[in-house]
Amino acid sequence: MFEVNQLSLAIWLPIIGGIAVLTIGNDQHAARVRVVALLVSIATFLVTLPLYISFDKTVGEMQFIEHLRWIPALNINYSLGIDGIALLLILLTAFITIIVVISAWQVIQEKVAQYMAAFLIMEGLMIGVFSATDAILFYVFWEAMLIPMFLIIGIWGGPNRIYATIKFFLYTLLGSLLMLVALIYLYVKSGNSFALADMYAVKLNLTEQIWLFAAFFMAFAVKIPMFPVHTWLPDAHVEAPAGGSVVLAAIMLKMGAYGFIRFNLPITPDASHSLSGVIIALSLIAIVYISMVALAQTDMKRLIAYSSIAHMGFVTLGLFVFNKMAVEGAIIQMISHGFISGAMFLCVGVLYDRMHTRKMSDYGGVANTMPKFAAFMMFFAMANVGLPGTSGFVGEFLVILGVFQVNAWYAIIAGTTLILGAAYTLWMYKRAIYGAVSNDMVKALKDINSREGFFLLILTLSVLIMGLWPAPFLEIIHTSVDKLLTLSAVSKL
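Above: the chain's sequence. Below: its structure in token form.
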């Protein structure tokens, strides 16, 4: 009985836990709020572990299926199920939420209950996105998760948080409305069914597929975000609190790529192949041009935000060359980027908590006063560059190798990220961390405490384990990727 309801438990435990946190009270009970939030996040992660342990790696179909009638009149159902791709993203979501709760332990002093509740509720909604096999249920979770993030940036964000939240909300909402139109069209074509399996079986001509592809593309490309609809992300990152930036980069960006995997590739396979050249071009622009934009940044958070856009370019590139190795590399890159980008934003958050500035020019010589922190940040900088032995290398290497089998020039252009990524990442590290102590504020800095050291160590181990032993991650997705490539193969219209 427990196995049947595992996904529901993973979705609703943090949502109910978040509501419970809200009922605890005001900031006078902040200590209790933090403990409850941490316990709920740990419990959610423990609930997701049996999904991995019990997952059948030899089956490409959905597993842990749940089905409940929701709105019978419209044939809308509460239907859940996951494959290996969704499983890894659910585990990442549950893991990152624990890190976010710990990272905010001492940093957030006002409206603590609301802050923790927002992340817990958002965790449940994001797991819902990865679990839904009914299109409307997917859409409900997809839209609902915007609300907690909107509040997180708008309440605990920086000076320009209102501008950033409005921009974030409008970009994502407008794209999502086009997705809803596409879902309604497919509902009619599939014989009044919102089940993803029924939508996969619908026969569509190329014109229909192209229009549907475009509608889905706008919803998912904005979320990734792809060039040229990427401008909301740096603003959102700069204004968001550290925890908001971590979830935004580590999980929310992956939802766009997941949307391509669940909707564009299997529902519109012919359009996906026909328009793959456009997607590949936009991905290569993101990898090269956005990396150059990152080189021009003076704000550390903004630089890492642009770095995220460039790294997500690898994901879309890998997905749309329709090569198994490249697709698997793209999925591994999604998970790896979750660890590394989350760690980079937390490192900036550690510095910001002490000096309340993100400008590289305000630092310099941090290694002299915070040697432990400098060592952690150097490791994550190397992982961001793609150093062999770290998770950052595995995904990028598989994508480049897979893309090379399709088109050598694509792989060569994508490979420039190894140079550009090293340039902007190490330039940031050199300016902020190395050199002589630049001012009295840097001189007065205290090294990381045990709490900060704990979450940075956990992320370090995650990056190392995935980099040195990627097999457990790859084995989970092999059959799911085979199934995806079968569904996304060109049909004979």
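The two ends are 44 Å apart (CA to CA).
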